[in-house]
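fold-stage: in
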Amino acid sequence: GVVGYATCSPHPAETRAVVEDVLKGRGGPAVSAEWIDARPLLPGLPELGEGPDIQLWPHRHGTDAMYLALLRRTG
């Protein structure tokens, strides 16, 4: 299956760093997983970044500062 991590924060410590910490086992056992590119889920939105995660911005996307990362377990 796929796990999604979403938060309404633009702060790196609450977005990408959380996912990286889980994958590296900081604060608990490491998780064997691969990133899934989330950008194809929002094909009509510009400036989604290099991926595989997405950070939306109020001034660019007309949304809250939403973050989305998708992971698929590999082990």
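fold-stage: in (second)
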Amino acid sequence: MTTPSEALTDRIVLHLVETKLFLQEDAQKYRDKIATGTMKPEDWLLAIEKALQKGATHEH
């Protein structure tokens, strides 16, 4: 059975991937950290920068 935190995290992660702010592999990697509130600012920054960089290279 899914906890409310896990259900909310699944929705957040899905939205981050759909809006191209997270790569799918990073979403899975950081899912537990997001759910437990242990995601550090530098983790967020790294994940978003990677997604934006990958998106920029696919646009050219």
